[in-house]
């Protein structure tokens, strides 16, 4: 089935672009109903506009009261009848109004293998710790930051001699493959949650 997506961003929007590309090439059965940014200057808004996708940017004044911002976002997404809220480099915490409107339907991408290295500086922290393997996690967002049920993970081996920029580039390459893939699973209704709140991806029919 065709799923309706709202994509929330804060920056350059490379993962947004990967999703746009997947939709345009026909490998992802989805429509992007809105791209919403926490920063009016985010380059991802230009990517969305060039693809003919409606955009919206919220100002710092709106975000001064997180509850008000959350209610504005929830209202906008409900009005567009979206199925999934896709966080793609969105640097604000999703609040209870959005979570209540879209239970188990807010999806987040994290540049580490959760539960390791949660938070906004996961790549740098993993690099500084000297891990030999890190990776990418796609999970359901909930009220606990970076603690929601895990849908998919993919490892990235850290090669000797890499800089943190090299690691970041490798992480992004995997993100751009994994995020559209998970959205394809959702479109095919293959993502199921059990009674314990764990996610299982069923085989394709």
Shape estimate = globular
Order of adjacent strands in the largest pleated sheet = 3-2-1-4-5-6-7
Q: How far apart are the first and last residues' alpha carbons, in Å?
A: 14 Å
CATH superfamily assignment? Formyl transferase, N-terminal domain
CATH architecture assignment: 3-Layer(aba) Sandwich
The low-pLDDT segments are none
Assembly status: single chain
Name the beta content range: 15-25%
How many distinct helices? 7
- Looking at the structure, the CATH topology is Rossmann fold
Q: What is the succession of H and E elements?
A: EHEHEHHEHEHEEHEE
Give the class from helix and strand content and strand pairing. alpha/beta
Binding site for N(1)-(5-phospho-beta-D-ribosyl)glycinamide: 13-15
Pfam families: Formyl_trans_N (PF00551)
EC number: 2.1.2.2
Keywords: Purine biosynthesis, Transferase
Description of the structure:
It is an enzyme of class 2 (transferase). It catalyses: N(1)-(5-phospho-beta-D-ribosyl)glycinamide + (6R)-10-formyltetrahydrofolate = N(2)-formyl-N(1)-(5-phospho-beta-D-ribosyl)glycinamide + (6S)-5,6,7,8-tetrahydrofolate + H(+). Keywords: Purine biosynthesis, Transferase. The chain contains seven helices and nine strands. It starts with a strand and ends with a strand. The chain is globular, with a radius of gyration of 16 Å. It has one domain (3-201): Rossmann fold. It has 205 residues and is of the alpha/beta class. Strand 8 and strand 9 form a beta hairpin. The strands form two sheets. Strands 3-2-1-4-5-6-7 form a seven-stranded mixed sheet. Strands 8-9 form a two-stranded antiparallel ribbon. Helix 1 (14-25) packs parallel to helix 7 and helix 6 packs across helix 7 (164-187).
């Amino acid at each position: 089935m065709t799923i309706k997506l709202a994509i929330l961003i804060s920056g350059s929007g490379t993962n947004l672009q990967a999703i746009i590309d997947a939709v345009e090439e026909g490998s992802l059965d989805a429509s992007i109903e809105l791209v919403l940014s926490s920063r009016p200057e985010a380059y991802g808004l230009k990517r969305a506009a060039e693809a003919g996708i409606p955009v919206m940017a919220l100002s710092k004044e709106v975000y001064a009261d997180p509850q008000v911002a959350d209610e504005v976002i929830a209202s906008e997404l409900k009005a567009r009848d979206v199925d999934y809220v896709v966080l793609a480099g969105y640097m604000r915490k999703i609040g209870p109004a959005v979570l209540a409107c879209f239970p188990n339907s807010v999806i987040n991408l994290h540049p580490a293998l959760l539960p390791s290295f949660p938070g906004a500086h996961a790549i740098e922290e993993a690099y500084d710790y000297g891990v030999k393997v890190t990776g990418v996690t796609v999970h359901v967002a909930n009220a606990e930051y970076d603690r929601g049920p895990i849908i998919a993970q993919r490892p990235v081996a850290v090669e000797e001699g890499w800089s943190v920029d090299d690691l970041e580039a490798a992480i992004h390459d995997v993100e751009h493959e994994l995020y559209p893939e998970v959205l394809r699973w959702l479109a095919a209704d293959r993502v199921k949650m059990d009674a314990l709140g764990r996610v299982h991806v069923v085989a394709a029919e």
